[in-house]
Amino acid sequence: MNQEALMQAVSGRVLETLEAQEAQLDAQIKKLETLEEDDLEKLRERRLAQLKAASSQTQKWKDAGHGTYSELSTQQEFFDVIKASECVVLHFYSATNAYCPVLDKHLKTIAEGHLETKFCRMNAEKADYLVQKLGIWMIPCVALIKNKSVVHMLEGLDELGGTDQFSTHFLAYFLSTKKVLKFDGPPPESVLDDGVAKAVPSKGSIKQSVFDYASDDDDYD
To answer: Is the pTM of this model over 0.85?
Structure first.
């Protein structure tokens, strides 16, 4: 075999080897792409299932009146509500108490943004049985209920800084520390903190202390 023929033979074998290696590499890449696509498909399916479950849960909450701040007219409605909803925030009010409308305003706002919790109000003067059983002695009073059990009673405004100037942001955070709703965002620095900018108390206002309630969102579920 002359030198030219030898070079052609060697070149041919090298080319065959390179082509074989390229084919093998292509097969490996294709396999990896297939595996990745399968993984992506599994993730898509899992995410779709989560979205469907979330949509179903959201609809159930809406059907139960979540997302609104409703009035309970009878004590039987109270029992129906705590049976239907895992988390309930119930404001016992009096038409003659000046602070009740303040709480109403904040609770209505929070209710619209927290579908996971049922928010409602009830005239304490028309709920003698519940007032007695729950030991309500001060108005306003907000009963925080989870899994049909009262986990906390917010009586008066002492836990809200002893002032009617507390922010909606602070009240939402306070409720989250009792595990009756989920709270997103930074913890408030004071009862006046609206979650947007650091509040500066005006001259002559009640001095506010920094509240540091322990909160663990993982315990909500």
So the answer is: no
DSSP 44: H
Cα 7 versus chain centre, distance: 73
Distance CA 126, CA 163 (A): 27
SS3 category, 186: coil
Torsion of CA 137, 139, 144, 149, to 10 degrees: 30
Q: Which of 139, 126, 131 shows the shortest CA–CA distance to 96? A: 139
CB count within 10 Å of CB 70 equals 17
Angstrom distance (rounded) from CA 81 to CA 94: 21
Rounded alpha-carbon distances, angstroms, from residue 34 to 29, 31, 37, 40:
8, 5, 5, 10
Question: Could you report the per-residue pLDDT of 95-131, keeping only the tens digit for each?
Answer: 999 999 999 999 999 999 999 999 999 999 999 999 9
Residue whose tokens read 């506010």: 208
Whole-angstrom Cα distance, residue 14 to residue 25? 16
